[in-house]
Design goal:
Layout lengths: L3 E7 L15 E2 L13 H5 L2 E2 L4 E8 L2 E8 L7 H7 L11 E7 L9 H15 L25
């Protein structure tokens, strides 16, 4: 289900696009550079664009997870689309870093919609980020009361 992921990406490092030029969500496979420092021009030229991927993402503000979301359940939105949406509206200015977990979106179809939805629900239930309005969907699962009366 998850084939690629990126941890702690800076919102400032993403090219969000401009008129007549699509944005990009560039990254490169982890490799031992054998040195320290910024990527070389060749490494930047061979970066992969993850803009069309679908999956799960987390937004961070001041180092804390503030929102968990999914991309691809509706078949139209991608990780890049959802992240770009969060730069406007209620989340604008509240986050500065994100992590993502996903896979390529083949012909606009995500073969793992139910799994992505449940992964989002589990993550929201565990982390309880402050800006999520919905708790996620455990399709077909039943909740149970725990020892102290809380819903499990």
């Amino acid at each position: 289900m998850i084939t690629h992921y990126g941890l702690g990406w800076s919102e400032r490092d993403v090219f969000w696009g401009r008129p007549k030029r699509e944005g990009q969500l560039l990254g490169r496979e982890r490799s031992d550079l054998g040195r320290r420092g910024a990527p070389t021009a060749d490494e930047r030229d061979h970066a992969k664009d993850y803009r069309s991927y679908v999956g799960l993402y987390c937004l961070y503000g001041d180092g804390n997870i503030i929102y968990v979301g999914e991309a691809g359940l509706a078949g139209k939105s991608t990780l890049f689309d959802r992240l770009k949406q969060h730069r406007k509206g209620p989340m604008a200015g509240r986050w500065d870093t994100f992590s993502w977990f996903g896979r390529e979106n083949v012909n606009g179809q995500s073969n793992n919609r139910a799994a992505i939805a449940q992964l989002e629900a589990v993550t929201i239930a565990i982390v309880n980020p402050g800006f999520n309005k919905q708790s996620g969907t455990f399709s077909g699962a039943k909740s149970r009361l725990g020892k102290f009366g809380q819903v499990l």
